[in-house]
Amino acid sequence: MIGVTSQLRRYFIFVAMISIVFVTIISNVSIRFLFSDYIKDTRIKDDLKIVQYVEQLYYDNDGLGPQSLMNIMHYALSEGVSVRLIDMQDAIVWQSSTDNMSMMGNREEYTANLVYKQYPFNNKGKQIGHIEVGRSESIFSSLEDQQFLSTINSVFAVAFIFSIIIALLSSMHIAKKFLLPIFLLKENAKFIENGKYKNLNQIKTKTSELHDLSVSVQELAEKLEYQDTFRKRLTSDIAHELRTPLATLQSHVEAFMDGVWEPNIDKLSIIHGEITRLTKLIKDLSDLSIIESDEIKLNTSRVELSELLNNIIESFEPLYLNRNINLKKEIEDDIVITGDTDRLNQIFINLLSNAYKYTNEKGITFITLKKLKNTIQITVEDTGIGIPEDDIKHIFERFYRSDISRNRDSGGAGIGLTITKALVEAHGGNIWVKSKEGEGTKVIIEF
Questions:
Q1: DSSP track, 343-399
Q2: Calpha distance 254→374 (Å, rounded)
Q3: Number of CB atoms found within 10 A of residue 443's CB
Q4: Rounded distance between C-alpha atoms, residue 358 and residue 410, angstroms
Q5: Could you give the domains of the chain?
Q6: Which of these ranges, 96-110, 167-181, 254-268, has the smallest mean pLDDT?
Q7: What is the rounded distance in angstroms from the CA atom of residue 70 to the CA atom of residue 75?
């Protein structure tokens, strides 16, 4: 394995090397192929100057004598070219040459590593032959041209070396600056792994992805801390829920065994009630286990939701009347849904039970069922004790009960809403709560 810093340094150096090599190749190609057009145009202009010079000498001297030919040769040598004079029969009559200034004969007899370009040789408006100017086939034939190319490539070689050095130094600086948040994130992950959720490193970065990642890690730590606290509290909650009915059962049985009490209907009813409470708790835990393992199965069918809800409300009316709670409803007729009748019953019974438990006497519970544009909405609203704002986000968690509900002798293990939410979502619905402490709670379900 290789560290991120070393990898980043390698990438910087590699990119710098590739860039310089690429620029060097492109520059050489540009000079040889693109700049060659400029050189060719310049050569043609220089050739025409030579042609004009020869024509002027011929005109001034009424021909080309030895002195004129010597001048042409010097001119050609100064320009680094070869000049040939061709008659109208296409034969070489003279050429500038260091070893043979006046070689005569056919042009095929003269061989040189030059490329000749032919121009008309005119005198007084009449062509009397041709002038050929020979240059090296390479556009970089001169020493100056070769030195120019060599200088350019040397500059690129120096730039290559300096680029490697700069890439090495800059990669160290950039890696340190860029990777510091990553190293801090890694350290935070180690803290979380070791169960230390507080006092994580504060990460300041302008990189949006790293900022989002640091926020996610921070939120993860908060959630894990909460889950850790919740897990510890869970044991206490289960013990609390089991302790009371078991203590009641134990005290009654011991009283019977010691002969303090005689078994009668009232005492046995209390025992039966506690056993029922324990049975319900175990059933809720079993349901919760099924729901949390994603094994919940629905026996779906066509359900007359309006009728179902009316029946449930009717069954709760005597209970509400006993506590002088006004149970109101507004149920639209003929609303049908595809769902599991038993599970839907469970949902609405849980909600009405909660409303009953946490609504004071002379309070109001209001149930509505209506069809909206694309959804069916059920609301259960009460004027009860309400839920503190900080507790609303936790009420669907298993065994969660707010301090207000714990201080109220209302029973319940804090599992009902967890199961309700799972059953609503199993039907493809959504459930949420609006509440204000001391004013009441409104539960909204949409299918």
A1: HHHHHHHHHHHHHHHT--TT-EEEEEEEE-SS-EEEEEEE-SS---HHHHTTTTSTT
A2: 60
A3: 22
A4: 7
A5: 4-148 (3.30.450.20), 208-292 (1.10.287.130), 301-446 (3.30.565.10)
A6: 96-110
A7: 9
**What is the per-residue pLDDT for 415?**
75
Predicted confidence (pLDDT) at residue 364 exceeds the cutoff of 80: yes
Apex CA 373: angle with CA 371 and CA 375, to 5°? 55
266 sits in which H/E element: helix 265-292
pLDDT one-digit tens code per residue, 192-226: 888 787 778 887 777 778 778 888 888 888 888 87
The rounded distance, in Å, linking the Cα atoms of 403 and 195 is 27
In angstroms, the CA 258 to CA 252 distance is 10
The 10s digit of each residue's pLDDT in 146-183 is 676 678 778 777 877 777 777 777 767 676 666 777 77
Q: What's the rounded Cα separation, in Å, for the pair 54 and 65?
A: 12
- Which secondary structure element, helix H or strand E, spans residue 243, and what is its range? helix 208-257
What residues have CB less than 8 Å from 71, skipping those under 6 apart? 57
Which residue from 314, 315, 416 is spatially nearest to 357, judged by alpha carbons?
A: 416
Which of residues 101 and 171 earns the better pLDDT score? 171
SS3 168: helix
d(CA 445, CA 352): 13
Residue with tokens 């301090």: 403
Answer whether 0.70 is exceeded by the pTM: no
What residues contact 323, with CB distance under 8 A and at least 6 apart? 356, 359, 361
Residue type, 125: G
Run of H or E residues at 328: strand 326-331
* Cβ count near 191 (within 10 Å): 16
